[in-house]
UniProtKB/TrEMBL annotation:
Limits of the CBM1 domain: 343-379
Protein name (database record): CBM1 domain-containing protein
Region (Disordered): 258-347
MF annotations from Gene Ontology: cellulose binding
An annotated GO BP: carbohydrate metabolic process
Any Gene Ontology CC annotation: extracellular region
N-terminal signal peptide: 1-16
Comp. bias regions, Low complexity: 263-339
Source species, domain of life: Eukaryota
InterPro entries listed in its UniProt record: CBD, CBD_sf, GH131_N
Keywords associated with the record: Signal
Length: 379
């Protein structure tokens, strides 16, 4: 009996994978903590530099009501907004994005990028414009929403998983539905897959694997949204809100559970639920086989983050407009990880330009000079 329990505990922890970067905002008292980070003081879990010129609370806000309530490991979620001021660096795309600040190997081997995403009917994203959501700069795995640039028609209400611009899976992006995602990336074998579920359901392999050039410098995954412009409607007064929670990168094996896998309040007796796919993706190659490394549905006994406090969740699924929550809990913090990320570009390297999201500083001995609107170089 004891032996069995021990074995189960070991198996459980083995299947949990290792959180190598944690972007769950548990140690944030408000989004203004993002201002702690700067190029000269690279602290905290996020780089915050891709945004408009207004204060951070116009673009990023945190609240327990902004998270997937099934995620018991996250204290709060993030609401990311774009409005007519959300232009960064002279560009004509509306963008609010956070980038992992870490020296962890989030761009090597087999890793899983976890997050949940939803929208509501308030400040709903526009279906007539292409959005790039939670993307890598080389776009080898990402979500998109809305009418893709160059597509026919006038709107497209689907959320899509894309591999290098090719849609591999899509679902109607209904309001108030939490979509849980893991980007399964093998940087060694250059393959990507897509895991998905809704609500509190465990993640299921939904598309892939696909072969693609997986390329990342470890500081170019963008949590947030970039909206392509259409016509010259740059001053349109519409605002969009996007909600994300449960953001972390895992290595080892994939944790398919949302949060700890145990839904609070509602009495879910189970742990052995068979993942039910409710959505039928149209163009999707559905893989029925479970890849070797996949933990099916085993109860996770261990959680990687030590949470001592239970957040008093004010959960009303329609997030009211109350952002900055007063959290009195001193969450057990993971000490600010060691900085280096997006180091200055080398001499001759790119340091700016439309669409550029990499380094914007240069190594000593060179300065960043704009050669044209699309290209700035360290000279
Ligand atoms: C931001 O800095 C303040 C003041 O030093 C600190 O109390 C807070 O914990 C920091 N936030 C994060 C997320 O590290």
């Amino acid at each position: 009996m004891l032996k069995l329990a021990l074995v189960q505990a070991l198996v459980g922890s083995a299947l949990a994978g290792t959180v190598i970067w944690d972007g769950r905002f548990n140690e944030f008292s408000s989004s203004t903590d993002l201002n702690n980070w700067s190029w000269s003081n690279q602290v905290g879990p996020y780089q915050y530099y891709i945004h408009g010129s207004s204060p951070v609370t116009q673009y990023v806000n945190l609240s327990p009501s902004y998270k997937n309530p099934a995620d018991t490991v996250s204290n709060q979620g993030v609401k990311i907004s774009i409005d007519k001021t959300a232009y960064w660096n002279g560009q004509n795309m509306r963008r609010t994005e956070l980038i992992p600040q870490t020296s962890a190997a989030i761009n090597q081997g087999r890793v899983y990028y976890h997050f949940s995403v939803k929208r509501t009917n308030t400040n709903a994203p526009r279906a007539d414009l292409e959005h790039q959501v939670n993307f890598f700069e080389s776009h080898f795995t990402e979500l998109k929403y809305g009418l893709l640039s160059g597509a026919s028609g006038s709107s497209d209400p689907t959320l899509k998983w894309c591999v290098s611009g090719q849609t591999k899976w899509s679902v109607t992006f209904d309001a108030d539905v939490w979509h849980n995602v893991a980007y399964d990336i093998d940087f060694s074998s250059n393959q990507v897959s897509f895991w998905h579920s809704t609500g509190s359901d465990p993640l299921v392999l939904t598309a892939g694997p696909f072969s693609v050039g997986t390329s990342s410098n470890g500081a170019d995954w963008h949590l947030g949204v970039l909206r392509l412009p259409m016509n010259s409607d740059l001053q349109s007064s519409d605002v969009e809100d996007w909600y994300f929670s449960g953001v972390y990168v895992e290595s080892g094996s994939l944790n398919t559970q949302i949060g700890s896998g145990v839904t609070p309040t509602t009495t879910r007796t189970t742990t052995t639920t068979t993942p039910v796919r409710t959505t039928t993706p149209s163009t999707t190659p559905v893989r029925t086989t479970t890849p070797s490394t996949t933990p099916s549905t085993t109860l996770r006994t261990t959680t990687t983050t030590a949470r001592t406090t239970t957040p008093s969740t004010t959960r009303s699924t329609t997030p009211s407009t109350t952002p900055s929550t007063t959290r009195s809990t001193t969450a057990a913090t993971t000490a600010a990880t060691t900085p280096p990320a997006t180091p200055p570009a080398n001499k001759w390297g790119q340091c700016g330009g439309i669409g550029w999201t990499g380094a914007t500083t240069c190594v000593d001995g060179s300065t960043c000079q704009a050669l044209n609107p699309y290209y700035s170089q360290c000279l």
